[in-house]
Amino acid sequence: MSAPEAHTLSKEERISSKLLIDKLFNGGGSHAMAAFPLRLVYMQTETATGAADEPPVRILVSVPKRCFKRAVKRNRVKRQIREAYRKNKQLLTSRLAEGENKGFLLAFIWLDTELHTSEKVERRVKQLLQRLSERL
User: Fold this and answer.
1) What is the mean pLDDT of residues 73-80?
2) CA dist., res. 46 & res. 30, Å (int)
3) pLDDT for the residue numbered 1
4) Residue 62: beta bridge partners?
5) Contact at 8 Å (CB) between 56 and 98?
6) Averaged pLDDT of the chain
7) Would you give the DSSP letter of residue 46?
8) What is the pLDDT of residue 50?
9) SS (H, E, C) 62-123
10) Given a cut of 80, is residue 47 above it in pLDDT?
11) Which of 37, 48, 75, 85 is 20 to 30 A from residue 125's alpha carbon, by CA?
12) pLDDT at 95
């Protein structure tokens, strides 16, 4: 990955397929860890060898309506999580680049009913990504 592309979050890196979402939450091979106010549900996948268009890590961000009734607050939290992931995803992708055809599906789920600062959200996302990369 070149330097300008290192800190991007493209459409291909997001989970939008209902099939993949069901696989992640109901597939049976998923695991979870938490760093309050976030919970990370992840599942290891096999990526096709030589598939340049398929990213090794795909993410989903969920902020339940029961946490924030107003969409403005839910959208703010989702923006904070996506930005924190975008800045720190190299913690995980650099480890995956060393290995052979491994990939991950990640779902970040918000647990708290309070808003937090972007710095705190970024610390928690970074902590979760580091813990996940250590499990590789």
Assistant:
1) 98
2) 14
3) 43
4) 109
5) no
6) 90
7) E
8) 54
9) ECCCCCCCCHHHHHHHHHHHHHHHHHHCHHHHHHHHHCCCEEEEEEEEECCCCCCCHHHHHH
10) no
11) 48
12) 86
Q: How confident is the model at residue 97 (pLDDT cuts 50, 70, 90)?
A: confident
Map tokens 């107003």 to a residue: 70
Q: Report the pLDDT averaged over residues 103-125.
A: 97
Residues 91, 5: Cα–Cα separation, whole Å = 15
Length of the chain: 136
C-alpha triplet 79, 136, 23: angle, nearest 5° = 60
DSSP three-state, residue 45: strand
What is the C-alpha separation between 122 and 120, in angstroms, rounded? 5
Rounded to an integer, what distance in angstroms lies between the CA atom of residue 92 and that of residue 94? 6
Q: Tokens 């190299």 appear where?
A: 90
Contact yes or no for 45/83 (Cβ under 8 A): no
The string over 41-64, giving b where at least 16 C-beta atoms fall within 10 Å of a residue's C-beta and e elsewhere, is bbbebebeeeeeeebbbbbbbbbe
Which structure tokens are listed for 32? Answer: 């979870």
